[in-house]
Every structure is written in C-alpha cells, then in structure tokens.
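Summary for the funding panel

The consortium committed to producing paired sequence-structure records for every protein in the target list. Below we show the first two records in order, beginning with the earlier of the two.
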Amino acid sequence: MMAYWLSFTLLTFCQPMQPTSTFSIVAFDPKTGDLGVAVASKFLAVGSVVPYAKAGVGAIATQSFANTTFGPKGLELLRKGLTPSQVLKQLLASDKDRELRQVGIVDAKGRAAAFTGKKCLPWAGHIVGKGFAVQGNILAGEQVVKAMAKAFQETQGELAERLMAALEAGEQAGGDARGKQSAAILVVRKGAGYGGFDDRYIDLRVDDHPEPVKELRRILTIKLAWAQLFEASKWRQKGNIKKAAEILKAAVLRYPDQAVLHYDLACYLALLGEKEDALKALERALQLDAGLKELAKKDDDLKPLRSDPRFEKLVR
C-alpha cells in the first residue's frame, strides 16, 4: 500500500488549481485618496491571494483560479499611467487561461474596470461604478454584486467602512454559494502604516472562521478606534487638546470596551478643566482595566483631579 504522505502528495499535484471563488470590491475615496479591497470567500486565507493595493496608484482584486501576478504587474502598469481598462487588456492578453480569471481594478483617479472570464464558475459577474468595481464567482446569484454596489454607494464614512458595508451586504444577499471561511480588507494611504514607514493603513485578515465577515467587522472596529487614538495623540502634540478630546469621544462611541480610549479621554478632559466628565471617563477606564491605577496615580495629565476625593477613591 502506498504510504499516506506519498499518496496525498500525488493527489495534490494531480488536482487542478482550486478556484478562488469570492465576492470582492475594489474602490477609491476621492476625499482622502484611500484605495482599498475587501473580499470574502469559502476559501482558506483569501486575503493572502486576492487583494493588492498601492497608495497613489490603485487597487486590484484577482480571483477565480486567481493569477496572482496580476496584482504586482497591474499596479506597476497603473503606476506607469495606463488606465484600468488598458491594464486589464494587457494582463489578459498574455494569459492563456484568461477565461478562468476574474479581476477588478480601480486607480487613484477613480477610474475602474473589471473582467469575468467565460469559464468562471456560475454565478459569476461584476458591476463597475464611479470609483469602484464589485465582482464575484460561485455566488448565490447576481443579487450579491448588486447588493454590494448599492451598499457601497449608500454608506457614509471612510473607505474602510464603506468596503465593510459592501461585504456585509454581499453576505446577506447570499454570498459564496458554498458557504463561509475567510475575509480580508486592505486599505492604503500614503504614510499611514505603522510608524509611517509604509502605506498599509488597514490590513486585516480573518483566515479561517465560521463567521469571517462578522469577525472582520469586529477587528475593523477596533482598528479604526485605535486609528482615532493615534490621531488624537497627534492633535495633542500640536497643542490642540480640545480637538484631541473630540476625536477620542468618537473613538469611545465606536469601541466602548477599550480601557485605553477612556483613560486618554480622561486625561484630555482633565487638562481642559472638564473635571466631572474626566472622572467619569477615568472610572470607566479603571473598571475595564484596574491595572491602569498605578499609571493614573503618577500621570501628570491627571493632576487637576488629584485634589478630588473621588479620584483617590478610584485609584485605591
């Protein structure tokens, strides 16, 4: 009897490439210049295959027996000044299996294009609109891409929130006909990555989960709240504490269970002389994380509260 590992290896090499059946959206935000891709699929770690984006250049989704060279090659062609339609034409011309492919492209001018090969597994299709393209294959039906396009166009907020709304609408409309497994969102903004060293403003993946779109929404909410925390810190460094506090109030509403958000809000409010609200924010922070008590005792930002007996009671 052939060894298990050998039979498995031979079977793997004899099988055709697995289709990256997904529903995805590529889009551009003219207000911020953000570019992004959001994708979901009954496929392990779809975020490692489909999304590509570069700040100031464009965003690409490559799926359905995905040709992953389309990502870097397509971005380079966009960088050289080709339109999304021209890029598609050039990429497909050199691909003998192009009728198996599905691609969506948007550039930093908001121009978009998409392609669905004739051999993509049904239901497969796409919609191209102003500043976006939605596409999918092995879907429950055309209603999936229609719902995605509608949600994207009608949702307010920054690009990541609009992309997320499109994914959620696609899933609610039936999504991938085979079920759920993974989801991802990639949004690029010049210098918005960690430490300002790259442009990956949001780069989140749920690789294997029973409810990947819901889980992606959860971690995106955390990410956006932390982005607000860092933005508030920048305003504080500029000396505009009032603006910093306004941003943190919004962050707390977005993600009310994060102790650090309440703590920093308490600091800013204390500096602004808003003692009552500062104490309330500090109390909530310490309820969520008692470990912050030692920091609060020494934090210069909280000096305006130290003469109040309620402060002493909170940090005991």
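The next record, for a separate protein in the list, is shown here:
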Amino acid sequence: MQAVKTVQIQYEATGSVLSLLEAAKDMVNYCIRVGLEKNITSRFKLSNEVYPYLRRLGFHTWYYLSAIEVAASILKNYRKVKRRQRNARVPRATKLMAKLGNQGYRVVDGKLRLPIKPREYFYVPMYKRAAQFLSDAALKLGSVTLTACTISVTFSKTAEITEPKSYAAYDTNECSIDGASLKEDKELVSESYDLSRVSETRHGYFERVRTVQARYSKDKRVVTKIQRKWFTKQNNKVNAVLHEVSSTIVRRAKDNDQGIILEDLKNICRAINKKVLAVNKFNGKTQRISKYPKRLKRRLNSWSFHRLQSFIEYKALWEGVKVVKVNPRNTSRVCAVCGCIMRDPKAKTLECCGISRHLNACLNLLKTQDEMLRFGMDRSANVAVIRPLKKAVSQSGEGNSRASPEELLEPQNLI
C-alpha cells in the first residue's frame, strides 16, 4: 500500500517568484475559460488547445502542464456541481499557487533548487528533517506545491501492513482521547490524552476575533488581515497538539505490535446543524430554524476529531500499523461487562458496574475485533476473560463431546 507524507518549508518569496505565482494563477484561469467556452471535457484536448499560447509566456514547461492539470480538475468538479445546481458559480482561481512535478526540482548542497524559467533557478534552504526525507533513496519524491510563503514537498513509500498480535481501542471525545488495550495476561491497560488545550485555543481566538470584528466593523480590510494572521496561529497551535498525541499513539502501537481501533464518526456536523420547521419567537413566523443552540453548534463544529483521526491513520500507514474503524453506535451506553444500557445519558460512569463510559466504549470497540473477549461478572473490570469453548476434545481421542460446566470452569480455560 502506498503511504504518502508531506514536508512544508517556510521561505520568503522574491519578486521573480511572486511574478511566477501570479502568472500561474492567470494560466489556470485562462485554461478554465477556454475549457468552458469550447466545452472541453478531456485534459488531453485542453492541453492541445491552450499549450501553444502558454509556451509563449517563457516559464518552465512543468508550470504549463501543472496549470492544465489543475484547471481540468476544477472543470470536472464544476460540472458535477452544475448537475445538482443549475445556477452554480463559474469557478476562478484566486490563490497564488503553482505546482511542479517531481522531475522539475533537485536537492543541491542541502538546498532545494526550483526552476522559474529555463536554466533560471532559485534556491531554498531546508531544515534538518526535510533534508533527511528528501535525501532518503528509499523514498519516492512527488510533486511540489509552491505558495507565497511555503513550499510543500510530497514523498511516498510502499508500506506493508502487518497483522497485529492484539489491538488498542480509542474513544474520541471533545476534550480527550481515551484508549484501552490488553496485555498478554489479559490485564487491561488504559490511557488518556488531554485535548483540552485544543478547545481552549479555539475559544480564545474566537473571542479575540469577535472583539476585533466589533472594533473595526467599518474596515473589512483590517479585519480580514487580522483574521488571516490569527487563524494561522490558531491552526499551528492546534496541529502541534494533535501531531504530538497522534505520534504517541502510533509509536505505542508499533512498539507493542498492536493494531488501532478508531470510531467511524460521521455526519456529526450535519446533525448538529440540522434545521426544523418551527415558530420563530422573534417574528412569530413559521420557518426553518436551528434545532440546537448556537453555543453547542460552535463547539462541535470546531471539534477536530476528523483531523486527529486522519493524523493517526496516515502515520499508522507509514509505520505499517493496521487501523480499523468501527461503528460507534451505543459503544458508550451498553455496558461491556453485563450488557445493561445506561439510564442517564449524561452520566460519566455506568450505574451497573461503575466503570467510566469512555473506558466502556473502548472495551466495546475491543470486543468487535476479538469475539472471544468478555469480562466476567465476578471479576475485576480490568481483567479480561476468554469465553470458554462449547465443545472439548476427549483425552482418549475417541471424538468430540460437549464439555460439562465443571470442565468449562477449569483454570486452563480462564485467562
């Protein structure tokens, strides 16, 4: 299986690089305009139509091919949207961005060499980690995405997913991610990673941005500039926490030869943003209004569960760790020990066996991959039991016979 990673290098763009980025944006828009006017659906036909004009601009050939590829993808997505919405807006490239194939750049003396025009290059110093990846002969280098302040270089390798000896299950929550796994002696090991810093960071920046919007309500240019700067800082802080947690989870799973079980969370934002037909208490009209309050929607819409799980998945794929996604329905409500259902959905512990609902969810996730796993009623909740076999082979070898209750309770059948 192909595993892909990306390194991002910060740099300061010169005047010639900015001119290249502006030209790349104009090339994409030109290709989009030609494709719409002549109703071209094939990238090959689009290339034959626009390439004679693009080559007159004097830039490196790779930028022409990349602009055609990007424009073809935009046109394809536009036609999909137009089938559903007849009044779909005509697409247009607005960001300064250029792509380059893996044959267009080189690593020279620890620096990344990128072309502008034929036999005209600019050099970007690389930090230690990026230099290690790009100089590794076992990795296959991919494309480069060039913006006004960053250079993103992709690389890949063929990863072999090994079958794990056991699994570690993780319950993703708003302020934490809780995990549980079993040792060889079936003793339960629980762990928890605090994600409260993510919520605090998002809430703090939200309040700051709202204050700026109220202060500079008549000057949108200032508000946009401040928002862009603060949102970049916010995402950097959030990503730092998520990368740290995901790296720890994958490293722990690899060291213990374990697979990772995650919840297959879907449609959370769609459910929280649902609107129902009701009477608006402000104007008295019957109209579609939000089902849930604004504070709850803001909180859950900014929940980074999908980003955290995607970090875990691509890092696990890179290390050859197996990841399984399981339907999370009722994993927190149904007790993993006795099978009872929680009465109070807001309770933090289960009334029947007194275990945490987060730990209970992890145990139910573990049971999806190990059908013989169960937890005895007369045992501690941190010790698992292997379900006894229904049939036992007689010592005389004459055939199979049903085991008696005394035989099922023998020490060798209980772990």
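Regarding this second record: The chain has a mean pLDDT of 85. The first helix runs from residue 15 to 37.
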